[in-house]
Amino acid sequence: MFGTTLRTAWRNLGRNRRRTGLTLGAIAVAQTAVLVFSGMINGFGDSTLETVTGPIVGHAQIHAHDWREERATEMAIDDVTAKLAAIRALPGVDSAFARVYAPALVASEMDGHGAMILGVDLDAETGPGGLLEGIAPEALDGEHPALIGAAFARDTGMEVGDELAVVGSASDGSIAADLVTITGLIETPLDMINRGGLIVGISVVQEAFLLEDSAHEITVRGADPGAADALVASLSTIDGLDELEILTWQEVAPEMSQILEVMGVYGYIVMIIVFMAAAAGVANTMLMSTFERRRELGMLLALGSGPGRLLRMVLTEALLLGLLGVAVGTVVGGALVLYWSEAGMDVLMGGGASAEGLAMFGVGVDPYVYPFLTVGNVVAGFIGIAVVSVVAAFLPALGTARLEPVEAMRG
Q: pTM above the 0.85 mark?
């Protein structure tokens, strides 16, 4: 019975090939758009999450209370070496880094510029997940080496090899001063560093700013960004940390967390729009198809076909129409996403040099998105379109099942 209904539905779709083709094309275009948009969201979301929870914020951060608001040099975490050892010994902790932030004036010859000096563990942060991951070792050679933000160097005219005088306010209010040598240019996810900062060894900054075995920030990475709350709870059990501010990455970077949440909502909105368009196309096709075949349908009823069979036939036509359209769209959309996953999708649409320095809320953003799809993205389209097609065709199908044979054959 079902096989007969399926063959009949398939044959009926070919009666008006132009209308069927247009509807199939509309559904295919819609599915293609959904997959490309979903791939973009997946790629941008993963890239943003990895950037934020990677070298910038980690999965959790530790500071002295109120330091994030005041940024005072003296508001530091004491006994950092012991605290780092205890943190790294915790189960589920992949890495932990201490950092020092010191606003200062840097001068090369006669020109002075305001800058943020970021003191980091040069050896630790060149490893996986560190701020300096991938930096060539020779860029850190020499006495008091410093890496300068590429945009900062360009704007100020400072170059590799320049010796800079660094002057700031030490933790006790006295003058902090030191000399560093620019050994390399750097572009990091921290826009603050790219546009106006220097990265220096943490011991150099601690000594100059009288912050012996102290730091302003400890960044901790666990196994999963989604387990940040559990990580914070675990960190709170360490002696000495309970007196400090321990925050999840969502609390440290609420704007980026909200962006990731909103992106997911946009995906659902686009999918709903596509389903509405598919419903309109299928409903229109089924209405026109059943209207044009009123005499034929009336004859089938007169020959003994039950209303239920006609109902199943029309619904099967709609289901076939929707699934064929979404199948074509999946092939096209999947091929486009596969291509862009390798080549990258330029979100600036040919922005070129303007891509340098692209940032949101102080976080550097890669102008190229590398989209990808999940099984859920594809399955959602098939299930959604299948359901929408049947629902959209239900009224035309119900009208067909209620036809009076004599009236239908009269037209």
A: no
